[in-house]
Amino acid sequence: MDAVVPTHLNARKRPRQARAAVTLDAIFEATIQLLLSDGPERLTTTRVAERAGVSVGTMYQYFPHKQALIYALNGRYLDKVAQDVEAVCRAQHGAPVAEMVDALVGAYWKAKTARSDVTRALYRSAVELDTESLIESFGRRVDAATSAMFESAADARFADLAIVNTTVLTAIFGTVRSAFERNLQAPLMCGVHKQLVVMCLAYLEAVRLPATADMRAGAQT
Amino acid sequence: MDAVVPTHLNARKRPRQARAAVTLDAIFEATIQLLLSDGPERLTTTRVAERAGVSVGTMYQYFPHKQALIYALNGRYLDKVAQDVEAVCRAQHGAPVAEMVDALVGAYWKAKTARSDVTRALYRSAVELDTESLIESFGRRVDAATSAMFESAADARFADLAIVNTTVLTAIFGTVRSAFERNLQAPLMCGVHKQLVVMCLAYLEAVRLPATADMRAGAQT
DNA sequence: GGAGGATATGAAGGATTCTTCAGCTTGAGG
DNA sequence: CCTCAAGCTGAAGAATCCTTCATATCCTCC
Fold it and tell me: Given CA atoms A166, A170, A171, A173 in this order, what sign does their dihedral have?
């Protein structure tokens, strides 16, 4: 997530001692908790500090202002999700499309549901500020990873991979988000997850090019 | 959207004279514009009033507080979208699945892109408050409409329509939202739209039950 | 034309919030 | 043990913001 970070959102300084790192974590955790319990509207610097068990001034030693805090929180999170996705893409390089999709959706879903509270809190916080740069950066990163993966598929080729890839990603991101937003109950949630895999697969099957000779021969590149 | 409206969000009074209606529209419009230009963070009652060319007190004659204003704005909008979708569902009653999907996605996409600025503004504002009741209500309404539509399909039946329907809707809602959020350029945007139809169709094709005798005979109910 | 309700005004009160800074505490290295 | 940088504190200033209400203006209908 180290791309085009609006300068005014830079962190103020990095922790050098152990206790500072602890403090920083406490601040992040407090932010998440407050975001969850009271919503972004009531997220104030004072409350964050209080919840984190530190003083307001302490927070201002690490962040120039409130927005920078939220920005950093989102960056941290998106970075982790992106890493997970990238790992999956590497692992599935050269695999059949079916496995790719299953793994991709699974990874993204897992990353989002692992701490669904955090996910929800961040979905809410993100609106407060210019997260576009973060999202865009995240999008590009994942785009590249999945693109490379699909390109290496053992059993399929696509005419216009760019649009196909974007579509699949947009659908996955969106469906997950939408599912969260509609607050679907566990069983429905789980059902939608499985159906999402089916849907992506059906789509890719529909738009793939007819098999070529080398693919039928089982070539891996 | 007339379901479980949190009482504290009720409008204060309805306009009875023509000029009052004009004022109200101006307030709504001003809210949208400010949401767009400055984001929800900087949406203040004073600014809304100023932009609308009225006094702050005027707004407080129609809304008990700021939240009620945003709530009403969202309600208004979702209601319109729901109406559009319901109309399409009625029109496509008994049609082939392919046409249904095309019409459904088209209608939703159109409703969202007709004034994409407004859509974006509301996507941003909605997080500020308890819009869950609105979204849930909207979801149920659309769910019912599309469910009834798909059930009447001339050329397909589904084993578990509930989950299939939810999946399709979640995917459509989400994909549209995601496309907006990622701020895709026009061509990509258009591409995703078309691909979304392909995707939904491919999915429905994959999960439909094998054709029955009466369907092959062309029965419509 | 005039009475009374519907609308509109906008200064001011009350409540928060963000951010700073001068001074204090803690920890690490010599 | 001592020194100095790193880390922490929290009262207070400055800036908004939300909301009210007493007052003024506009419509409508008799």
Answer: positive
